[in-house]
Design brief:
The chain is an alpha/beta fold and 269 residues long. It has helices at residues 47-54, 82-87, 105-111, 119-132, 134-138, 149-161, 179-195, 207-213, 231-236, 238-245, 258-268, and strands spanning 6-17, 21-32, 36-40, 63-72, 75-76, 90-93, 167-171, 199-204, 216-221, 224-230. The structure holds adenosine-5'-triphosphate and magnesium ion.
Length: 269
């Protein structure tokens, strides 16, 4: 990979919560400009923590990066505030959507443009968002609380796009959505990636869907990256199939399945 084209580099970060709980145990990843990179793994693997470390949103959770560094286009960003990061084009879309329930869709979108001053630019961004998310246009005056889960996810991504980002950290966009809606959301993400040149880092439990739409993937377990590769290599890897895609050996296996667990330990060893 040509290092000139790497937009984001995470170098061996450790994250501790509440001064004692070591959650990330040396996580490294690199994100090429213009790509969609997936961070995959089950509950509690450390995906959200990794995204929060990048966007510097750990403090609110009493977490801190205690080792390693994070660079954006070769410059250290670990000490920048979340709003400085937004100004540099790094925006996070939180897990669980987090739209303001009492605001309309359009009001929610407008909250994403707080770093932008020019009215013309804000209006143009709003049109751009409506262009990518026609559903949001039809629901523009609806209170977010009364829109569907899919529309709220679109609203959360649309709000991020209002800040003109170059890098969007997308946490679990598929959560709680029907497969067809997940496809719709991912198709728009892919469109934004291709046409607006937005780079995405996508944290997902839905390995199948995430690999379908991303270029490269990192698999996390217990605060470590245990495997990485191109999306197509991961999608055809036997271990990935068994543990994350649920297609190996016929029926779906759960993480708690003893046999899987043993084999997983072997794989991790
Ligand atoms: N604020 C916190 N204080 C203490 N521990 C935390 C905190 N937030 C997360 N953790 C712990 O850190 C570990 C990683 O959590 P994280 O939310 O990053 O995982 P995740 O991969 O995003 O999981 P999920 O898929 O369930 O969202 C878990 O063991 C979790 O319990
Ligand atoms: Mg998470």
């Amino acid at each position: 990979m040509d290092s000139k084209n790497i937009v984001l580099n995470v170098n061996g970060i450790e994250v501790i919560y509440n001064h004692v709980i070591l959650v990330l145990k040396g996580v490294s990843l690199s994100v090429p400009e213009g790509s969609i990179v997936a961070i995959l793994g089950g509950n509690g693997a450390g995906k959200t923590t990794t995204l929060r470390a990048i966007s510097n949103l750990l403090k609110a959770e009493r977490g801190e990066v205690t080792k390693g560094s994070i660079d954006l286009r070769g410059e250290r960003i670990d000490n920048l505030s979340p709003s400085d990061l937004v100004k540099r084009g790094v925006v996070q879309v939180m897990e669980g959507r987090h739209c303001f329930a009492h605001l309309t869709i359009e009001e929610n979108l407008m909250t994403g443009s707080y770093t932008r001053k020019s009215k013309g630019e804000i209006a143009a961004n709003l049109e751009k968002v409506y262009n990518y998310f026609p559903r949001l246009k039809t629901r523009r005056t609806s209170q977010a609380a009364y829109t569907s889960g899919g529309e709220q996810q679109m609203c959360a991504i649309g709000r991020a796009i209002m800040a003109n980002p170059s890098l969007v950290l997308l946490d679990e966009p598929s959560m709680g959505l029907a497969p067809q809606i997940v496809e719709e959301v991912f198709n728009i993400v892919q469109d934004l990636n291709k046409k607006e040149k937005v780079t995405f880092v996508l944290a997902e439990q839905n390995t199948n869907m995430a690999l379908k739409y991303s270029d490269y993937g990192y698999i996390m377990e217990s605060g470590r990256i245990v495997m990485d590769g191109t999306a197509s290599d991961l999608a055809s890897n036997e271990d990935v199939k068994e543990f994350y895609l649920g297609v190996g050996g016929g029926e779906r296996k759960s993480f708690k399945d003893v046999k899987s667990y043993k084999r997983r330990k072997r794989w991790l060893a």
